[in-house]
Specification:
Two copies of one chain form a homodimer. Chain A is mainly alpha-helical. The first copy, chain A, has 23 helices and six strands. In chain A, helix 20 packs antiparallel against helix 23.
């Protein structure tokens, strides 16, 4: 795919230079909106407005939605009011809102000014909802039916109004107060008899979300029940919008990326990596690096307190990295498993003891395996092969025992931290993963020196 | 939701005991298949067959699909052949395949024996495709139209055959050799004139995948182009199946979980956490812990080589954890960002130099910030507040300089490893994240001791 883009790029730039606009239009017409958007990113900004104007109206709007905020802004600034109106008219309301949210306020004013009054009202309505809520990602364009309609009426209505709806495949039935009383699919309607009454066909056990529900919850509902779209209702159960599966796909991908970033001590960002400036990347990464660096004072302090002992038993120092890393890895295995299970809804706080007990048993198995393997590894590799005779048998015991104890502590702490964070309403991914290393480091060093003091008499 | 399940559970168990089957049927009837499946997991296994038999046929089949493999097996073993046939008849082919893949071979034989001959053929067909390929997750039940049909014909055909199709919302047009020549949505058909010809309405630039494409690619295509379903073709471009958005949702969630697990040095598993046995968890976690533990021999060896120097400058030891952790965190920020960007398709190997140059500049910014802050942190916290006077100004310089150099190396290595792994056809998440710590540890220690030797003359 990308090899194709690379040559296409140069072809297009050559055609622009040669003013072969008819050929360009033909080429662009064969591409999908998402592909044109990617192509536009790679092309020189100066030729974008020209190329964009070559697109037929509908393709132009669909492409516009797929483009990055920077390119969108560039184009809008170059649009005449008439051109802007043409694009805005073709957008679904939820896409228009996504764009409006990314733009500086003077651009927003222009977009709203060019929207039809009813669209402007819908955009303003959606903009009121908190970020990442169901209200903020929903669309207000859906098929609304009435209970008394026949299937024939319903199909006529869909035929008449469907062109502007984001999906016509799930239809919603409301009462005179716009309360949601039922839903049914186009499949139900089409496969039923023409005279059947909508009220008899509709499903009344409706799965819905409310405007303030988090987008992650909405995506999980769509995915759990394999829905095409989910209705969004207000506090009085009035139908105000729907969220479709394509938005859920984006949310699931976005939330997974966010979790991954947080686990790696990065402040999440909506922007794709290549679009982030050096300064933005620095801002996303430096806070946790600083916090974790300063919190390492603690481990440093523990080592300093045992300086005299370490000076006498220098062999002990060589195992500090191994102990810290294995502890860290063991802990993050547990914490990452729990964080992910929490976020996809596999476990909840009520499973606390089940999880801790499970991790404790796994930890014992891992600890024994690692301890035993490490004992032979030290005796064979470090002592016999590398000739490090300072590592006596008692020192080996101290290391292996510490290793086993550290693994157990790390796994138990690793699974508890995210669960507790979740219970306290904190973000499990942030609170657990980056902080865990520091906690486990300190634990492993404390165990190490306590055990060394006891066994080696230092 | 879960609080509700908890009480519902006890109610149901009480009703079973009291033999109130009519009431039970009413209750189950109000629930969604996915919720019944969750409920069944929490209930005692002995009452499952009874409860399952209370479900109406369609709900029973839908619930069966949502259940875990253990419960499915339990039920199948208790089914009479007639009961098994009833459930199998209601399943979509792709769901049947999913179930068959999880079952022991004697159960598979019984399922196939009870399937209608055409269904059995389809199941066998799909089972031939490699795991995680488009062929293995597709369904063979789709709406197929011919070019010459009118919209009226098409709707009639959909009405007649639609009930068995997984989706009727995207229709595929094939030529007499079953080659895919076009596709269009039900919306296109319904909103067009009744006499319009399908061949004129259909889209001929078709986005399709082939049977051997990876499921992650299929999900990305569905998500990128916001498709309801994507057609799967064989090497001769004959239409053999479709993959619908609900499967893509599952794949995206599954692949994200897999990436996260690999980054945390865990062998990925399809099973939800709470269903994995202690031994399975141990098996998923111990290999990387062992590999990483043994590879830490390397860092231990570096420290041992500088034992004499460390014995003289014991203050240096206290900073080893901070240097290794900050290096590790910096590196994993870069590697995780690159791994995730690779997997969602934001970057590719051709961006190698762009990425490395970007990371290099971010690294310099981070290195300078961390170095400067650390200098003041050591002078103020460690020396003045904690009174650790062994940390002289030259030692502080050595630590801060090493820190900066480590951060730069860590970020550059961190972004290069996954890209190289990807190019070599290895899994970036496995090759990059768990291994990175060991590499960065060794780098930071080598820099540390070299710098110390040069500056402190040891």
């Amino acid at each position: 795919m990308n090899e194709k883009n690379a040559t296409l790029e140069t072809t297009i730039e050559a055609l622009v230079e040669g003013k072969k606009y008819a050929v360009l239009r033909e080429i662009l017409n064969t591409l999908q909106p998402a592909d044109i958007a990617i192509l536009f990113e790679d092309l020189d900004n100066s030729i974008l407005p020209l190329l964009f104007r070559l697109l037929p109206k509908e393709l132009a709007a669909a492409t516009f939605v797929e483009m990055g905020a920077d390119e969108q802004e560039l184009l809008i600034k170059g649009f005449s009011d008439a051109e802007l109106k043409e694009v805005v008219d073709e957008l679904y309301v939820d896409d228009a809102v996504d764009i409006v949210e990314e733009m500086p306020s003077n651009v927003v004013k222009r977009i709203l000014a060019q929207s039809a009054p009813d669209v402007r009202k819908m955009i303003n309505e959606i903009l009121k909802y908190p970020e990442d809520s169901a209200g903020s990602i929903m669309t207000t364009e859906f098929v609304e039916l009435k209970e008394h309609m026949t299937c024939e009426d319903a199909i006529k209505r869909i035929r008449r109004t469907g062109v502007d709806k984001e999906t016509i495949y799930t239809c919603y039935v409301t009462d005179p107060n716009r309360k949601l009383i039922g839903c049914l699919t186009l499949k139900d309607i089409l496969l039923a008899d023409e005279d059947s009454i909508i009220g008899d066909l509709m499903e009344t056990d409706i799965i819905s979300v409310t405007t303030t529900d988090d987008q992650e919850k909405v995506a999980n509902v769509l995915s759990k029940y394999d829905l095409n779209a989910v209705p969004v209702v207000d506090t009085e159960h009035r139908l105000v919008g729907i969220v479709t599966f394509d938005d859920a796909l984006d949310v699931i991908e976005e939330e997974a990326t966010e979790d991954i970033e947080k686990m790696a001590a990065i402040t999440p960002s909506d922007k794709p990596y290549l679009r982030m400036s050096i300064l933005e990347l620095w801002k996303a990464r430096i806070p946790w690096l600083l916090i974790l660096m300063v919190s390492a004072t603690f481990t440093g302090y523990i080592i300093s307190s045992f300086e005299t002992a370490l000076a006498r038993w220098v062999a002990l120092t060589a195992f500090i990295p191994m102990l810290m890393d294995t502890g860290g890895n063991s802990g993050s295995q547990a914490s990452v498993t729990v964080i992910r299970s929490l976020s996809i809804g596999d476990i909840e706080f009520k499973d606390f003891f089940k999880v801790v007990f499970k991790e404790f048993r796994v930890a014992i198995l891992c600890a024994v395996t690692l301890g035993v393997v490490n004992f032979f590894k030290i005796r064979i590799i470090d002592v016999m092969l590398l000739g490090n005779t300072a590592v006596t048998v008692p020192v080996t015991f101290v290391v292996c025992f510490t290793l086993a104890a550290t693994v157990i502590c790390a796994k138990v702490v690793g699974c508890m931290l995210p669960l507790v964070a979740n219970k306290l309403g904190l973000d499990p991914a942030v609170m657990a993963s980056p902080l865990l290393t520091t906690v486990v480091d300190a634990i492993s060093l404390l165990i190490y020196f306590q055990v060394a003091t006891a066994f080696l008499g230092i």
